[in-house]
Amino acid sequence: MLAAYAVQVEHSRGRRFPEPQHPYRNDFQRDRDRVIHARAFRRLEDKTQVFTRRYSDHFRNRLTHTIEVAQISRTVAGALGLNVDLAEALALVHDLGHPPFGHAGEKALDSVMRAHGLFFDHNLHALRIVEDFEQRYAAFRGLNLTFEVREGIIKHSRDYDAAKHPELAEYLLDQRPPLEAQLIDLTDEIGYNTADLDDGYEAHLLTLDQVRAGVPVFEYFFRQAEQTYPDAAEKLKFNEALKGIFNRLAGDLITNTQARLQQAGTATLADIRLHKERLAAFSAEVEADRKQIKNFLYENLYYSPSLAGEKDDAERIVTELFTYWMTTPSALPHYYQEKAGQDSLPRVVCDYIAGMTDHFIIEQYEKYCGGKGFKHRGHR
Ligand code: MG
Fold it and tell me: For residue 86, what is the domain's CATH number?
C-alpha cells in the first residue's frame, strides 16, 4: 500500500514517445531496468568515487556507490510508504552524469567550459545522456524515460532557476519534486559519508584515533561497540560504529520526514509539490551529525595531501585533452565531429570527455597529449 503522497505509477505523466504497457513490469520498473542496461551505467564501474583504483580494488567506485544508494533508498522509501520502484530508479540514475576522476574531473571540466562562457553540471549531463546519448532502441533516441524519472534527475539534489534554465521549463521548476526524488540527495549522503570513513580508514589515510576525536557520533557508537564486543578486532568495532551511524541517519530520515509530513499537514502528492520547502530531511540533531562527518571528511580526506597529487593529475588530463580537441577537432571520433555541426564545439568536447571512464581518458591522454597520465601513484 502506497501512502497518499507517494507517486502512483498509474498517474505518471508518461514518456515522450508513448509505448505499449509491458505485461509484467510497470513503467517505473522498466525505467529502473533501462538505466541498469544503459552503457553509461556500466561505465560507472570505472569512474572514481573518491579513490582511484590504484588504492585498492575493493574500495567504492561510482557503480558500487550507486548500488549502495539504491539499497538505502529502497529501505527508506519503503518505510515511508513511497514508490520504491521510482526511488530505486532515481538512485540508480543519480550519478550517471559524473565525468571521470570524481570531483576533480568535474571541477576541471567546469572550469574549461567557463572559459567559453559555458559550464558543466552533472545533473544536466545525466539528462542529456538519457534523452540523447544512449541509443538502444529503434523507435526513439535515448531511453524514453517517464517524466517522473527525468524530473528526479534534474531536481533530486538542487533547485534550478527557471529564468536561467528555460530548457527545463517542462520540469515544474516552481514546484518541489516528489519525496521519492527528495530523499535521494540524503540517501546519497548516508551512503558516501559512511563509505568514505570506511575506505579512508582502510586506505590508512584516516586513523581510528582521528575519526574518534573528529566525529562525535562515531565515538558514541565506537564506545558502544567496545562495550558489547571488547575482544573484537579494531576493524570490526570500526564497522559496528559505522553501522550505528548508518542506522541512525537512515532511521532519522524516516521518522523525521514522517514528523515533518504531519506537521505540514501534507496529505497528497500535490501538497508535497506545492509545499514551500522540501519535506524529506534529517532532524536538527542528526543534521548536525551529518555536517560534522562531512566537514571531517573534507578536512581530513578529500583535501588530504595524499590525494592531492592524483587530483592534480586528473585536472591536468581533463584540461589538456579538452584543449587538444578544441584546437584539433578533426581528431574527435566521427560521431562527435558530426555533433559539432549542431552543438557548440566546447559542449561536444565536454560531452565526449564527461562520458569517459578513468581508464579510457588516461589512454586518450597518453595517445594525444604524450607523457604519462598519472604521475602520482597515491599513497602507499
Ligand atoms: Mg552519489
Answer: 1.10.3210.10
User: Which grid cell sits at 56?
Assistant: 585498492
Concatenated DSSP letters of 157-210? S-PPPTTT-GGGGGG-TTSPPPHHHHHHHHHHHHHHHHHHHHHHHHTTSS-HHH
Residues lining ion ligand 1 (Cβ < 5 A) are 95, 188
Distance in Å, CA 109 to ligand 1 centroid: 18
Structural domain boundaries, residue 200: 26-306
- Does the residue 367 lie in any domain? no
Residues of the chain with pLDDT under 70: 53-54, 376-380
Q: How far is the CA of 84 from the centre of ligand 1 (A)?
A: 18
Task: Report the predicted TM-score, pTM, of the whole model to 2 decimal places.
Answer: 0.95
Query: What's the gap in Å between 176 CA and the centre of ligand 1?
Result: 20
**CA 177 vs CA 89, 180, 181: distances in Å:** 15, 8, 6
Nine cell digits for residue 242 = 559505522
pLDDT tens-digit readout, 51-88? 776 677 788 889 999 999 999 999 999 999 999 999 99
Whether residue 341 lies inside any domain: the answer is no
- How far, CA to CA in Å, does 369 sit from each of 32, 198, 303, 324, 362? 38, 36, 27, 7, 10
Domain count, the chain: 1
Q: How far is the CA of 326 from the centre of ligand 1 (A)?
A: 30
Query: pLDDT (tens digit, 9 = 90+) per residue, 138-184?
Result: 999 999 999 999 999 999 888 999 999 999 999 999 999 999 999 99
Q: Could you tell me if residue 13 is inside a domain?
A: no
pLDDT per position as a tens digit, 307-318: 888 889 999 999
- On whether residue 145 sits in a domain, the answer given is yes
Q: What are the angstrom distances between the C-alpha of 249 and each of 112, 191, 254, 301?
A: 37, 10, 9, 21
Retrieve residue 364's grid coordinates.
586518450
